[in-house]
Amino acid sequence: MNRYLFEYELISTGFISEFSWVAESEEKARDAIRDRIADLEFTEIEDVIVGNLLKIMDASGHIEECESCAS
């Protein structure tokens, strides 16, 4: 698995930022990320343009644990 870092833009405001997603392929990451960005930015999916792929990072072997889950 890889983490794909994309640039994105909100059409309504012109706001540009970056967001990453872990997936099996760039295509799967690109498809899934629009929904998540729209949710985080409180906007419609149609308002989100997923732009250039900025970076691919290896996500295998990386375990993230929430604070409340750690003992």
Detailed description of the structure:
This is DUF1902 domain-containing protein. It comes from Paenibacillus gallinarum. With 71 residues, the chain is α+β, with helices and mostly antiparallel strands. It has 1 helix and 3 strands, in the order E-E-H-E. It has one helix at 26-40, and strands spanning 2-10, 16-23, 48-58. It has a 3-stranded antiparallel β-sheet, with helices on one face. The radius of gyration is 14 Å and the shape is elongated. The two termini are 27 Å apart.
Based on secondary structure, the structural category is alpha+beta
Radius of gyration: 14 Å
Mean pLDDT: 89
Largest sheet: 3 strands, antiparallel
Q: What share of the residues lie within helices? A: 10-25%
Protein name: DUF1902 domain-containing protein
Keywords:
71 residues; alpha+beta; three-stranded antiparallel beta sheet; 1 helix; DUF1902 domain-containing protein
Short structural description:
It comes from Paenibacillus gallinarum. With 71 residues, this protein is of the alpha+beta class. The chain is 21% helix and 39% strand.
